[in-house]
Design a protein that fits this description.
Number of strands: 2
Structural class: mainly alpha
């Protein structure tokens, strides 16, 4: 396995890790919480999922052969209330991630230097992948943060809980 192949495997692991974080945060919410908008300028979690879904389908469909901003994408609509229930949110979530992973699974290291267009700007395939590797965790962070806000003290930490670093280190390393 060469460095580029390790890169692709690392990207897939990282993306699936962030996918899992968002899923664990959303799983803690009551279904109606996915649709709460704190104000007119903020997005609900459902809207964030809609946006990620639209971006994922646009960027990863025909990844190496067409511009990542597809003519059929309606980006502005991704920030409107469209999805009506948790099942629809999760369906869009899974569909988007399946598109990403299918595209990544179709790549090999010989393709990473290929030119990819996003909004008519040239990127190498590696640069285009890195762009999404930054974009999706940004939105996952929004989902987790909003879930924490909605649940308050009921939120179950997805990492080392507050004021529990010493316990974690003792368990992990046998030290503080």
């Amino acid at each position: 396995m060469n460095a580029d192949t390790k890169y692709l495997e690392s990207v897939k692991q990282q993306l699936l890790s962030y996918k899992s974080l968002a899923e664990k945060a959303m799983a803690q919410l009551e279904p109606e919480m996915l649709f709460i908008q704190p104000n007119s300028e903020s997005n609900s979690i459902a809207m964030i999922v809609q946006h990620m879904h639209g971006n994922m389908l646009s960027r990863w469909t025909d990844f190496l052969t067409s511009d990542g901003e597809k003519e059929w994408r309606k980006r502005d609509e991704e920030f409107e209330v469209i999805l009506q229930n948790k099942a629809e949110v999760l369906e869009k979530w899974e569909e988007g991630w399946a598109c990403v992973m299918n595209a990544l699974n179709g790549l090999d290291d010989s393709m990473l230097a290929n030119t990819v267009l996003i909004r008519n700007e040239q990127h190498t395939a590696t640069e285009a992948i890195n762009r999404q590797l930054a974009h999706y965790p940004y939105h996952v962070g929004q989902i987790v943060f909003f879930a924490k806000q909605l649940l308050g003290e009921k939120f179950i930490s997805l990492s080392i809980p507050k004021n529990k670093s010493n316990e974690f280190n003792t368990d992990k390393f046998g030290t503080k």
